[in-house]
C-alpha cells in the first residue's frame, strides 16, 4: 500500500506560491525601458527663464569652468531616482593628474603605461609641486600640510592609507598592522563639514518654478559659500643661503616621509671624506665594525666577507639614501645592486634594474632569476612576469614607462642604473639624464659605474636635481692587479718574447719597453735579410699572422695563462683569426663531447634548415676546439651559446669585439689586444683610457688569479711610448652631459602642464654650472636692481631721449661687429695682409680712431694682435659716477666729437697694445718696412724699472716718427689712406652671415643719421647721464636673463623645434598638442617622418611586406656593397620617404634646428629587399644570398623593425585607421618567426652546460 500511494502522488507539484525569480532578473537586466524611473511624462521638461542677449558678450574666461554639477541619487536596491545632490567637479582628470593618489590604470596597461597618461611628479620640481598642492587646497580635497607628522600622510596626500582613486581611508597604527578607531575622528570631520556646507533641498526647488528661476540669477544677497581656508606652506628660510633653486624648495626635501631611518653610520665627516652640498664621498679605507649588528634585518646574506665599499654602500641603502658606486672592473659592484633588489623584496616594494643593451638585460635576468626566483623582464618585443618585484629592462624602456605614467612607479623603491658611465654615449646618453630627472621623490637611486674622475660632481648634480643627498662609494684599486705586456714574437724561437711594460703597482717599466723595441727591430732586420728591404710587412700575409697566433697560444698554454679573451676591433678579423686556428686543438675528448651535446641541445629551438646555416656549422667546428667568436655579426642564439661555454670554461680563447666588455661579468686569466687602434665611424684612432681599461679589466679572476695578464700584440711595430702611457695610465673620460632635445620629449612634456621642457633643460647635467652660479647671480641681481632703482627713479629728461636712442643703436652695432669682425679678418685674402708694418685703423679704449702699426699676432688668445700706437690720450677733466670702460670709449667713437681719425699734434710718445679683432676698424693698403721683433724688444726693455729712462731705439723711433706723420696727415686731410675691402672676397656660405652683414650696414646708416644729436655742447656730461642709466638697466637685464630660461644652452634649439612642430601642425598656436602630436608621441624614434608617412597615406597602396621593407630604412645602420633589385612599388616608397625627409630637413634648417653628426644619414635602404623577402616568408638561408650583411646584424635589424611596426600600429589606432592597423599587425606577424625571434637561452633555458 505505501508503494502504491507513492506512485499516485508523483505527478503532484507544489502550488505556485512565488513567481519565477530568474524571469524577474532577466527582465530587469535586459529590458531597462520598463523600469518606473523612465516614466518621463512625470518629469519637468521646460523651465521658464528671461532671455538676456547681452549676457552672450559678458562671458569671463576664468568663470567658464563650473565648480559643481548635479548627480542623481539612486536607491541601491531598486535603482530608482530618489533625489539629486550637488557634487564638486574634480580640478583635473586622473589622466592629467601627476598625483600618486590618482586612479590606477587597468591591469593590461599598468606596467607599460599609456601615452594618454601623465607621468608622476618628478622629484626636484618643487615649484610645480607647490602649484599642484595649492590647486588641490582650493577645492578642499586635500589637506595640505607637508610638515604634518600624522601617519599615512605623504606630501599632503593620504596615499599610505587611502587606495589610489578612492576616498575611503584606512588608518593603521605605527606597527603597520593594527587598525585605528576612526569613529571619533570621522564624527569630528562631519561637524566641520556641516559648518561650511550649504544644505539645499533641490527637490523642493524643482517643485516650484519661481524659485528655480531665481536660483540661476546673480543675486548679491545670496549667502556666499565660505572660501576654503588658505593653506600656508611652511618654508624654512636660511638667511645665509640664497641659492636660486633652493628658494623655490618646500622644506624638508621631498623624500619618503616618516620611514624609519636607521642610525647606523656616523654623521660626522671623517678625515679624507670630500663632500659638497648634495653629495658626499665615503672613505672606504675605514673599516666598518659591527656591520651585521648595525643592520638587524639583513635583506640578503652572502657566503663571503664583503669588501668595505660594499658594506658602506649597503649601510647607505638601508638608511634610504641615493648611492653612486664607482668601482674598478670585477670589484663586485653587482653585490650592491643585488642587495637593493633583496631590500625591495623584504620591504614588499619593487626594484627596477636597467642596463644599456638588450643582451645584458637578458643575462642579468638569468642571473637574478637564479638568485631571487621572482624576476621580470621587459624588452621591446618581450614581457616576462611583469608583476614581479624586480624588473630588468633597458633604460629606454624605463624612460617610456615614466613618460606614460606606469603604475609600477607607485611601488618602486629602487632604480639601479648599471654602467651609468654610458651617459657619455653621444647617441643615447641623454636617455639616462631624462630618466634621472623624471624619477619621483620616493624612489632611491643606485648607480653603478666604472671609475671616472668626476664622480662627486655627477653625484652632486643628481642630489641637487632630486633634492636628496647622494653618497659616493669608490674603490681605491682593483681586487686583482693587472700586469701589462708587449708581445713581439712571430713564431719559432721568438714565441716567448713577452715584455712587462706596466707592473701590478701601475708603474711604467721603461726597461721592458726598450727591450720590446729592440726585439721588434731585430725581428724586422731578420725579415729583411730573408726577403729583402722591399719584402713588405712581416704580417702582411695571413700565413705569417696564423703562425704568430699559433705560437702565442702555445706560449700562453705553457705559461698557464688560459682562458684568454682576444679583443679584435673588427668583426671580419675575429672570424678570420678563428678560422686560421682550426689546426689548434685546446679541448679534451670529454670536453668536445660536452660542447657538441650542449650545442645540439640549444639548436633544437631552431627549425631544421636554420640549423644548417654556414655560420652555425662554422661556429660549432671552432667551438669544439675550444675557440669562440663573439661580435654583433653572430646570431644572438650563437652568441649566448659562446657566452655560456666561456663561463663554464669550455672556451679557452675567445675572439671578441668591444661589446663583450660591456657589463657582463665574464673574466678571463688573460686579455689580448690584437690592435690598439679602432675606427670610430669618423677616423682611425688609438684607444682612449676608458675603452682600454674597460676591456683590459676582463683580465684577472677574483679568487683564482693573483694577477691578471694583459698583452698587446706588436704586429706592425711597437706603439709609441707616450701613446702607451696615455692609454694604460691616463685618466678615464669624465662623465659629461649628452643631453639634447627630441621632438618626442617636447611633445610628451607639452602634454604635461606642470613638468615643462624648460624645467627639464634647466635640471640637465649640461646646465650644472649655471645652477651652481645661480645663488651668486641672484645676489648680483639684487644689487643691480637696487642700483637701477637709485639711478632710474626719475624719468629721463626729454632732451636726452635722442642720446638714449643713439646709445641703443651703438650697442646693437657693437654686438654685430663683435660677431662679424673675427670672421672678416680671418679670411685667407684678408689675413695674408696682416704683415708686420701694416697700418691699421683701430679704436681700443681711450685710443679712439687712431692709426697703428701691426707688429705680430703673438698676443693672448682673446687679444692676439700686437700693435704700436701713438700715446695721444688726453686726460678727461670731467668727473663721472662710473668707471670708464671699453663700452664707454667705443660708443664715444661713433659720436660727432670723434668724427675724425689720427691726431693733430705730432708726438714721439708711444705704446704697444694687444687688441682684439673687434677693435680693428679698417685695414689700410699702407705698409711700413720695420723689424717688429726689434721694436717689441726695445719696448719691453724700457718697461723694466732699470731701463725706464733709456733712449728709444733707432728702429722704434723711426717707426714712431713715420706713424706720427701719417696720423697727422690723415687728421688734417693732407692725404687719405686707402682701405682694403673686408667683404669683397667674403665667402657667404650661410644665410645667417648674410643677415649679419645686412644688419651691420643698416645700423651703421642709423648711427650716421643719429650722429647729429651728439653734436651738442657739453656732450660728454650729458651722455654720461644716459650711459649711467643704460648701464644700470643692462646690468639688471643681464642677471635677469642669466636667471631665466633664455640663458639655457638648448633654449634656442627648443624655440626652433617649437616652430617646426607648429608649421607641421603637431601643436597649435598655444603650444597645445593636437592629433599629429599625439601620434608622434607613440613613436620611439624618427617621430616626425614616421608620423608624416602615416598622415600622408604613403602606406595606403602598399601590402604588409612592402611596408615592413620600407620601414627597415629607419633601423638598419650597417654598410652594404650589394646593389638591390627593388620592385616598382618599393622604388616609389623609397622616393616618397626620401622626399619627406628632404622636406623635413629644409624646415629644420629654416628654423636653425641643430642636427647631430651623422643624422643626415639616418635613412639606410640597404636591407629593403632582404626584409621584403623575409616578410614574404622566405627561409633565412635564402635571404642571406641577397646581401653581404652578416647574420647577426640582419636579425637585430628585423627585431628592431618589429618594435617599429608596433609603434606604427599604435599610431593607426590613435587616428582610427583600421586598415593600416591590420596591415601593421600582419607585417609584424610575418617577420616575427623562426631564427630571427628564437627565444633567448637566458630567458628559457633550463639545461646546464655541464649536464
UniProtKB/TrEMBL annotation:
It comes from the Eukaryota. It catalyses: ATP + H2O = ADP + phosphate + H(+). Gene3D superfamilies: 1.10.3380.30, P-loop containing nucleotide triphosphate hydrolases (3.40.50.300). Residues 314-470 form the Helicase ATP-binding domain. Keywords: ATP-binding, Cytoplasm, Helicase, Hydrolase, Nucleotide-binding, RNA-binding. GO terms for molecular function: ATP binding; hydrolase activity; RNA binding; RNA helicase activity. Pfam families: DEAD, DSHCT, Helicase_C, MTR4_beta-barrel, Ski2_N. Residues 93-113 are annotated as: Disordered. GO terms for cellular component: Ski complex. It is found in: Cytoplasm. The keyword Transmembrane does not apply. Residues 580-750 form the Helicase C-terminal domain. The keyword RNA-binding applies. One of its GO terms (biological process) is nuclear-transcribed mRNA catabolic process, 3'-5' exonucleolytic nonsense-mediated decay. This is Helicase SKI2W. It comes from Leptosia nina.
Amino acid at each position: 500500500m505505501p508503494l502504491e500511494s507513492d506512485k499516485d502522488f508523483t505527478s503532484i507539484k507544489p502550488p505556485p506560491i512565488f513567481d519565477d525569480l530568474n524571469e524577474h532578473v532577466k527582465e530587469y537586466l535586459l529590458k531597462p525601458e520598463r523600469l518606473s524611473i523612465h516614466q518621463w511624462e512625470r518629469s519637468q521638461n521646460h523651465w521658464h527663464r528671461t532671455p538676456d542677449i547681452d549676457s552672450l558678450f559678458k562671458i569671463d574666461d576664468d568663470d567658464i569652468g563650473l565648480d559643481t554639477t548635479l548627480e542623481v541619487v539612486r536607491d541601491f536596491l531598486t535603482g530608482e531616482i530618489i533625489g539629486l545632490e550637488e557634487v564638486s567637479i574634480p580640478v583635473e582628470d586622473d589622466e592629467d593628474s601627476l598625483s600618486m593618489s590618482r586612479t590606477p590604470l587597468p591591469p593590461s596597461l599598468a606596467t607599460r603605461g599609456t601615452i594618454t597618461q601623465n607621468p608622476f611628479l618628478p622629484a626636484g620640481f618643487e615649484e610645480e609641486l607647490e602649484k599642484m598642492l595649492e590647486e588641490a587646497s582650493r577645492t578642499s580635497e586635500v589637506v595640505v600640510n607637508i610638515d604634518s607628522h600624522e601617519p599615512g600622510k605623504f606630501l599632503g596626500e593620504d596615499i599610505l592609507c587611502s587606495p589610489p582613486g578612492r576616498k575611503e581611508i584606512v588608518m593603521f597604527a605605527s606597527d603597520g598592522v593594527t587598525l585605528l578607531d576612526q569613529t571619533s575622528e570621522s564624527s569630528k570631520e562631519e561637524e566641520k563639514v556641516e559648518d561650511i556646507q550649504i544644505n539645499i533641498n533641490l527637490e523642493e526647488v524643482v517643485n516650484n518654478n519661481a524659485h528655480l528661476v531665481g536660483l540661476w540669477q546673480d543675486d548679491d544677497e545670496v549667502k556666499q559659500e565660505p572660501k576654503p581656508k588658505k593653506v600656508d606652506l611652511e618654508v624654512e628660510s636660511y638667511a645665509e643661503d640664497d641659492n636660486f633653486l633652493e628658494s623655490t624648495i618646500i622644506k624638508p626635501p621631498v623624500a619618503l616621509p616618516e620611514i624609519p631611518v636607521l642610525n647606523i653610520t656616523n654623521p660626522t665627516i671623517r678625515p679624507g671624506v670630500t663632500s659638497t652640498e648634495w653629495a658626499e664621498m665615503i672613505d672606504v679605507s675605514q673599516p666598518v665594525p659591527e656591520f651585521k649588528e648595525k643592520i638587524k634585518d639583513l635583506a640578503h646574506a652572502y657566503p663571503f666577507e664583503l669588501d668595505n665599499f660594499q658594506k658602506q654602500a649597503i649601510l647607505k641603502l638601508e638608511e634610504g639614501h641615493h648611492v653612486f658606486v664607482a668601482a674598478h672592473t670585477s670589484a663586485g659592484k653587482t653585490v650592491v645592486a643585488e642587495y637593493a633588489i633583496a631590500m625591495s623584496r623584504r620591504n614588499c616594494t619593487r626594484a627596477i634594474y636597467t642596463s644599456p643593451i638588450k643582451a645584458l638585460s637578458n643575462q642579468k635576468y638569468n642571473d637574478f632569476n637564479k638568485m631571487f626566483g621572482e624576476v621580470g623582464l621587459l624588452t621591446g618585443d618581450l614581457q616576462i612576469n611583469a608583476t614581479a618585484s624586480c624588473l630588468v629592462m633597458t633604460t629606454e624602456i624605463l624612460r617610456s614607462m615614466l613618460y606614460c605614467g606606469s603604475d609600477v612607479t607607485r611601488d618602486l623603491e629602487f632604480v639601479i642604473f648599471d654602467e651609468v658611465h654610458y651617459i657619455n654615449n653621444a647617441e643615447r646618453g641623454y636617455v639616462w639624464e631624462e630618466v634621472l630627472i623624471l624619477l619621483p621623490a620616493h624612489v632611491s637611486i643606485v648607480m653603478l659605474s666604472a671609475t671616472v674622475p668626476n664622480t662627486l660632481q655627477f653625484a652632486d648634480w643628481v642630489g641637487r636635481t632630486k633634492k636628496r643627498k647622494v653618497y659616493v662609494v669608490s674603490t681605491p684599486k682593483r681586487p686583482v692587479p693587472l700586469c701589462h705586456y708587449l708581445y713581439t714574437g712571430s713564431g719559432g724561437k721568438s714565441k716567448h718574447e713577452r715584455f712587462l711594460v706596466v707592473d701590478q703597482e701601475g708603474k711604467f717599466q721603461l726597461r721592458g719597453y726598450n727591450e720590446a723595441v729592440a726585439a721588434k727591430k731585430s725581428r724586422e732586420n731578420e725579415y729583411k735579410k730573408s726577403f729583402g728591404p722591399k719584402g713588405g710587412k712581416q704580417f702582411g700575409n695571413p700565413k705569417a699572422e696564423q703562425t704568430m697566433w699559433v705560437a702565442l697560444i702555445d706560449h700562453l698554454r705553457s705559461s698557464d695563462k688560459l682562458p684568454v679573451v682576444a679583443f679584435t676591433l673588427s668583426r671580419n678579423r675575429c672570424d678570420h683569426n678563428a678560422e686560421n686556428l682550426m689546426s689548434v686543438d685546446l679541448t679534451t675528448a670529454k670536453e668536445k663531447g660536452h660542447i657538441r651535446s650542449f650545442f645540439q641541445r640549444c639548436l633544437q629551438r631552431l627549425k631544421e634548415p636554420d640549423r644548417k646555416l654556414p655560420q652555425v656549422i662554422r661556429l660549432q667546428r671552432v667551438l669544439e676546439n675550444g675557440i669562440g667568436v663573439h661580435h654583433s655579426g653572430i646570431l644572438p642564439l650563437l652568441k649566448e651559446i659562446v657566452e655560456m661555454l666561456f663561463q663554464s670554461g669550455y672556451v679557452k680563447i675567445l675572439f671578441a669585439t668591444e661589446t663583450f666588455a660591456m657589463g657582463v661579468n665574464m673574466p678571463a686569466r688573460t686579455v689580448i689586444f690584437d690592435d690598439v687602434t679602432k675606427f670610430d665611424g669618423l677616423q682611425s684612432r688609438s684607444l682612449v683610457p676608458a675603452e682600454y681599461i674597460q676591456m683590459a679589466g676582463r683580465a684577472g679572476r677574483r679568487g683564482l688569479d693573483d694577477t691578471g695578464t694583459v698583452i698587446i700584440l706588436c704586429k706592425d711595430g711597437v706603439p709609441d711610448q707616450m701613446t702607451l702611457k696615455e692609454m694604460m695610465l691616463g685618466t678615464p673620460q669624465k662623465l659629461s652631459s649628452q643631453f639634447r632635445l627630441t621632438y618626442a620629449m617636447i611633445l610628451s612634456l607639452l602634454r604635461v602642464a606642470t613638468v615643462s621642457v624648460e624645467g627639464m633643460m634647466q635640471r640637465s647635467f649640461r646646465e650644472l654650472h649655471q645652477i651652481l652660479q645661480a645663488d651668486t647671480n641672484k645676489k648680483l641681481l639684487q644689487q643691480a636692481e637696487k642700483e637701477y632703482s637709485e639711478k632710474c627713479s626719475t624719468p629721463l629728461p626729454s632732451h636726452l631721449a635722442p642720446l638714449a636712442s643713439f646709445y641703443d643703436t651703438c650697442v646693437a652695432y657693437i654686438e654685430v661687429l663683435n660677431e662679424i669682425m673675427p670672421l672678416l679678418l680671418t679670411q685667407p685674402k684678408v689675413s695674408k695682409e696682416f704683415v708686420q708694418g701694416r697700418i691699421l685703423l683701430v679704436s681700443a679704449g681711450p685710443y679712439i680712431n687712431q692709426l697703428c702699426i701691426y707688429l705680430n699676432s703673438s698676443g693672448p688668445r682673446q687679444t692676439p694682435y700686437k700693435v704700436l700706437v701713438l700715446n695721444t690720450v688726453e686726460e678727461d677733466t670731467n668727473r663721472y659716477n662710473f668707471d670708464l670702460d671699453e663700452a664707454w670709449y667705443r660708443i664715444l667713437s661713433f659720436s660727432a666729437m670723434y668724427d675724425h681719425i689720427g691726431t693733430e699734434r705730432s708726438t714721439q710718445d708711444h705704446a704697444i697694445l694687444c687688441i682684439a679683432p673687434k677693435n680693428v676698424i679698417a685695414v689700410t693698403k699702407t705698409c711700413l718696412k720695420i723689424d717688429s721683433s726689434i721694436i717689441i724688444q726695445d719696448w719691453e726693455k724700457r718697461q723694466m724699472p732699470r731701463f725706464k729712462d733709456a733712449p728709444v731705439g733707432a728702429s722704434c723711433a723711426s717707426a714712431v716718427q713715420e706713424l706720427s706723420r701719417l696720423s697727422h696727415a690723415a687728421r688734417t686731410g693732407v692725404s687719405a689712406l686707402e682701405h682694403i675691402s673686408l667683404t669683397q672676397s667674403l665667402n657667404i656660405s650661410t644665410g645667417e652671415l648674410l643677415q649679419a652683414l645686412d644688419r651691420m650696414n643698416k645700423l651703421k646708416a642709423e648711427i650716421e643719421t643719429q650722429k647729429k644729436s651728439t653734436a651738442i655742447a657739453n656732450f660728454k656730461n650729458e651722455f654720461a647721464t644716459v650711459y649711467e642709466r643704460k648701464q644700470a638697466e643692462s646690468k639688471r637685464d643681464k642677471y635677469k636673463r642669466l636667471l631665466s630660461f633664455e640663458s639655457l644652452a638648448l633654449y634656442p634649439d627648443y624655440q626652433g623645434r617649437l616652430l617646426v612642430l607648429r608649421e607641421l601642425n603637431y601643436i597649435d598656436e598655444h603650444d597645445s598638442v593636437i592629433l599629429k602630436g599625439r601620434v608622434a608621441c607613440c613613436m620611439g624614434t624618427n617621430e616626425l617622418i614616421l608620423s608624416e608617412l602615416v598622415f600622408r597615406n604613403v602606406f595606403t597602396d602598399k601590402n604588409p611586406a612592402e611596408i615592413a621593407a620600407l620601414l627597415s630604412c629607419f633601423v638598419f645602420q650597417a654598410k652594404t656593397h650589394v646593389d638591390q633589385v627593388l620592385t616598382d612599388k618599393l622604388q616609389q616608397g623609397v622616393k616618397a620617404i626620401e622626399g619627406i625627409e628632404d622636406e623635413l630637413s629644409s624646415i629644420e634648417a629654416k628654423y636653425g634646428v641643430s642636427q647631430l653628426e651623422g643624422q643626415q644619414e639616418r635613412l639606410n635602404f640597404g636591407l629593403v629587399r632582404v626584409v621584403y623577402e623575409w616578410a614574404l616568408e622566405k627561409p633565412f638561408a635564402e635571404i642571406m644570398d641577397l646581401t653581404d650583411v652578416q647574420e647577426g646584424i640582419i636579425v637585430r635589424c628585423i627585431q628592431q623593425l618589429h618594435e617599429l611596426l608596433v609603434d606604427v600600429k599604435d599610431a593607426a589606432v590613435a587616428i582610427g585607421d583600421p586598415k593600416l592597423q591590420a596591415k601593421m599587425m600582419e607585417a609584424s606577424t610575418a617577420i616575427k618567426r623562426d631564427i630571427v625571434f628564437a627565444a633567448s637561452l637566458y630567458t628559457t633555458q633550463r639545461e646546464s652546460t655541464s649536464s
